[in-house]
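Thread: Modeling a multi-component assembly for a lab meeting

Hi all, long-time lurker, first post. My supervisor asked me to bring a structural picture of a complex we are working on to next week's group meeting, and I have zero experience with this. I have the sequence lines for every component (898 residues in total). Could someone generate the structure of the whole assembly? Inputs are pasted exactly as I received them:
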Amino acid sequence: MQFQISSELIEKIKLLIEQQSNEELLLHLEDVHHADIAEILTELSLEEATYIVKLLDSQKTAEALMELEVNVRERILDTLSSKEIAEELEEMDTDDAADIISELSLERQQTVIAELSDEEHADNIVELLRYDENSAGGLMAKELVKVNENWSVTGCMTEMRQQAENVTRVHSIYVVDDKNKLKGRLSLKDLLTAPSHANISDVYIPQVDYVNVHTDGEEVARIMQKYDLEAIPVVDEMGRLVGRVTIDDIVDFIREEAEKDYQMASGISESVEADDSIWRLTRARLPWLILGLFGGLGSVYIMQGFEEALSRFPVLFFFTPLIAAMAGNVGVQSSAIIVQGLANNNLRGSLFNRLMKELSLSLINGIALGLLIVIFGLVVGQDQAVSLAISISLLTVIIFAALVGTFVPIILDKQGVDPAIATGPFITTSNDICGIFLFFFISKMILGF
Amino acid sequence: MQFQISSELIEKIKLLIEQQSNEELLLHLEDVHHADIAEILTELSLEEATYIVKLLDSQKTAEALMELEVNVRERILDTLSSKEIAEELEEMDTDDAADIISELSLERQQTVIAELSDEEHADNIVELLRYDENSAGGLMAKELVKVNENWSVTGCMTEMRQQAENVTRVHSIYVVDDKNKLKGRLSLKDLLTAPSHANISDVYIPQVDYVNVHTDGEEVARIMQKYDLEAIPVVDEMGRLVGRVTIDDIVDFIREEAEKDYQMASGISESVEADDSIWRLTRARLPWLILGLFGGLGSVYIMQGFEEALSRFPVLFFFTPLIAAMAGNVGVQSSAIIVQGLANNNLRGSLFNRLMKELSLSLINGIALGLLIVIFGLVVGQDQAVSLAISISLLTVIIFAALVGTFVPIILDKQGVDPAIATGPFITTSNDICGIFLFFFISKMILGF
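Re: Modeling a multi-component assembly
Sure thing. I ran the full set together rather than chain by chain. Output:
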């Protein structure tokens, strides 16, 4: 069905590279899709991969380079000269070329840009490098098909054919005025059925969704998803058409964002992959662990304050990991739901309603879990007053944790901070400490030690 | 830039509904995109929303219904008769219609299908209902443009115009043989430039990516993303063309899957939203909390076994929440990276290499955290032997947790179980218990109590 990379194929290619059988290599790779070439490159050693990149024509390798993972691509680009990189970039769409250049060192960027022979292409790439990579400007490509509202339908057809050659998929034809301001759009169907003497201004559709170069990537994704768009035009501060974002880039963007959120929720502070270096993985993982450690030391400190309970109610100390786990779990559950609601823009109702709902929810959960603790106490023959004290303090801890989990992301969001950070070890850690303090405080009131 | 729903607009619409000013309502809503109509419906009361749905023509409301959240849609559909629902379905693409029908009760499904007047449409919907909703069959629509390889280019143009009327976006023209088997594809551009006397078989492109009706949705998404496809044809067991999946549905699918994984990692067992009922939210949240509770009770049991340490080394018990938190955090970090590697299909290298890497990584993290504990001990004047015992047992716990976090998802995946489940409270809970046991066991060996 699809092309499958077998270990036989990889072995064959490795052998052909060793024998320098270039013609046979070309024959093997001729009909292979660039995304599959990328997978093959990943399986080869750096020398072998570089050999293939230099052998194949740059149109194919340019697209394959785009599909590679960043770390593999970096290593291959390091072995290429600035001129060789420039040749690859010439074949790429402007957005891809800009993405790749931005991965190079500042010094290397300049030498590569100087080697670009197509001046317009170079200009476009330099323009794209100016935008934040998570904005519409950073996501857009300069390649698009546009026509002037004052053109005739026939003149337009000729001009369009020429423009379309540089554009992989046309999607929509955009209509601009003499100042390049976006006026509307035109479907290919409309153009084909329009009388040939008509002007574009007679036949175009003036409604068109668009975004600004500074629009946040998340917002672009939301609009394109909401309106099922496959491309959206991007305008500058003056309303001039400067590029367009296509759905394939948005699909990649959505995946990356989802992975980032997932990693943040798992306590990993920067985007990493299983194959990254140990140093990079440590840098991503250790910070949250240290935060967690300080949280744990906080708990140690609190428990030392309740040391007098140790002789009479040692079991309270046995319950502390349970209390901390419950406080953490409930907090993460509550905040995950709020963070998703904020991301999907579907958090409705007043803060008071949300408070009431979270209160009832945590009451139900807390009573259910408290009952289980009382039953456990009966089974193991634990002092019933102690069981009751633990149950009631657990209930309090759960209510507290749920409220923190609900309101911290809402407050962060209002402050303009990404609320997703709240579902990470941050909320777990603070809930752990507060939970343990609350637990001992309430137990002390009930048991009177 | 975009249409913005203001509270004034909502108030205005509510007033017009009250006054039953149908004409003015229609005037207000005429140019509003169906996705925005959906947002307006969500802001209205059930009676008001139903009023609007019945007032607008079904072409517009059908698309708006599709954009609604499930729970809002369910409530509105409950107020409509089977005939009214059937009228909405007539206007929808087959995949949307099938999705909506599948949300109805089995009994209601039959009465609605019986009310469908277009028999072919009804047949198509019934066919789609047979497939698993997460398979290519469940994601595809029957609407597509196809031509027979034996047709002439001119004959084909006429036939195609007719087919294209029912298809929102053409993307690709698929080529089939007399038995409806998928042979290849054709671009509109190829068709326009082909000599009119040529046969389709002379001009079509025989390479075409496709999937089977039973292909998993994740795999469809992966293929479409890898090859930047905007639509992919779907064939049945006999290779016959039965439908196609378009990128807008895949974008929704990717988002939903990402949300599910995120919720699973946050200990929420079924897909919920902040606005769901308290009962539904409890059902999604309580199971994992109960699992965590049993885990906590396991820790209580373990600590009772080490009770003899209580008098001499009470501080060990103060450190248990810290140990449990570290074991949980490290486990979740390790498993999140593996789960993403598995999902992205980029986990390379042997198991032994992975083992070595995870060992070195957890050694580095564990030593760093252990040192901090020794420093903390010096600062608060803790017995140095105790500090050392805690550090060394923490190191052991971290190595253990990292290995569990790494290998549990790999084993689950090999067994055909979704590895994402491993990042949830499941791994946290088991790591908590094992971590606390290891902690006391090692401490006992070092301190000798």
